[in-house]
Design brief:
This protein is mainly alpha-helical and 78 residues long. It has a single domain (5-77), classed as Methane Monooxygenase Hydroxylase, Chain G, domain 1 (Up-down Bundle). The chain contains 3 helices and no strands. The mean pLDDT is 95.
Amino acid sequence: MPILKGAKKALRVSKKKNLINRRLKSQMKTAIDQVKKEINPKNVSLASSKIDRAVKKNIIHKNKAARVKSQLAKLKSK
């Protein structure tokens, strides 16, 4: 356990950010799974939005986002 005041605060902040990041990543993965289950333009745009938001908040890398969005677009076109 942290002893110094700054270390205690860093632990609090880290836990809070971890919770937020997990929530956003989970929402993104759920949206992607919905697209794979039922492919329609509304689901694809929602998933793309969630992916873009995750990139904006540095939860996933922009290249991974581009790859996943490309795969979703391929599914949509089939």
